[in-house]
Amino acid sequence: MKKTPAFCNMKDWHQRGGAALLAALTATLIAGCSTSPAPETRAPSGAPMTHSPDAKSYFSLADETHAREMVLFALGLLDTGYRFGGRNPEAGLDCSGMVAWIVENISGKRLPHNAAQIADRTRPIELSQLQPGDLVFFNTLQRRHSHMGIYIGDGRFVHAPSSKGRVRVERLDSRYFAPRIDGARTLIASS
After folding, report:
1. Given 33, 66, 95, 145, the catalytic residue
2. Which CATH number applies to 57-186: 2.30.42.10, 3.20.20.70, 3.90.1720.10, 3.40.50.720?
3. Is residue 94 pLDDT above 70, yes or no?
4. pTM (2 decimals)?
5. Strands annotated E in 73-159
């Protein structure tokens, strides 16, 4: 009779901490796109900062043409499968993974894989200032910046939703997204 390898034996797997590892991996996946924002920034005195970082500290793309490329890349990902915590099109993407993957492929620069942290590191703009390639953020989980997408113009954006499982285009004025809009950011440095 063939002996079952130790890694396939559930009793051995459980005794070696497999269940704990599985629980830790599950918790990590649940954190994905909608994790809590990074801890608040503190001034040198130790007191919390009461203002946003200045424009020099915002993440920005080196070239304004990269914003147009963001739209093209996003449209090229339409119908890509959704995967919570996904960081590349082959494995599937979540909302922040899609944005981070596009930015890195266009510019070589890395953004965090977290919508709230991306919002923290990018320059806020008014919704009326949105240009193709800018980022739009939504409160979909009862907390700020829990979902995001790339604005493509004409009131539309590309995002990786968990429902229906595919990267797709939505309208900002849709019944679902309009009341959940949580802000806009640009990756273009201020002039």
Report:
1. 95
2. 3.90.1720.10
3. yes
4. 0.72
5. 87-88, 92-93, 123-125, 135-138, 147-153, 156-159
